[in-house]
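1st attempt posting a full record on here, be nice pls
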Amino acid sequence: MDKWRGKVALVTGASSGIGAAVARALVHHGMVVVGLARRLERVQDIAKDIVEAKEPGKLIAIKADMRKEEDILKAFSWAEDQLGGVDVLVNNAGVFHTSYLSEGKTEDWRDMLEVNVLAVCICTREYLKSMERRNNQQGHIVIISSIAAHIAEYPKINMYCSTKHAVHAIGSCLRRELAEKKSNIKVTEISPGPVATEIFEGTDFLEASKSLPILESEDVAASVVHALSAPPVAQICDIVLNNVPTLFAFY
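the predicted structure (as tokens):
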């Protein structure tokens, strides 16, 4: 991780759960992290804790709603103007709604599509445009996906699975696009099983998750660090974090 010391990372959904854990991990390794979230004060509280802990890096809180393209554009513009641009992009923000397809609400589907898919595309586009302007092809894009990207057998998470399947396809196509352009920017998708975060709150999956083997946000953050630590010639494309004992069998 020494190569990333002093470099800039942008993490979406940084106010809690996986996003907060990733932000802390990258700051611990000396990175300047721009943390995007609607709940600005929560990211600011994490930043204060980081200062008190005298970590080598820094966390900067930016208020942004991933459903609003203008918020995303402003964040990337600010990062380029004030920090010289983003070197590592961590697309983490996500939402989760459950229902049978026959009972689903259009607003819930739209919510998942906008945050889980469209925001990932917008962030990635703006990141790549900025990298091209700066003639920098040594970056890394991390997409926090889900084990739902590899399975499709649980009917009450039909649309959530669909959004994660979509992101998996986007990541694979993006790697080919970058290869055709002779870019050294890497793309890593990390697909964890159930993680103990706020994403299950307000869903009927919350109670069920209490009886499941569960991952912690720090487990996912460790995988982000692992992917970023790969040597220049190696690209870690997919990391699937299954729960132990194994919860989902898809091979």
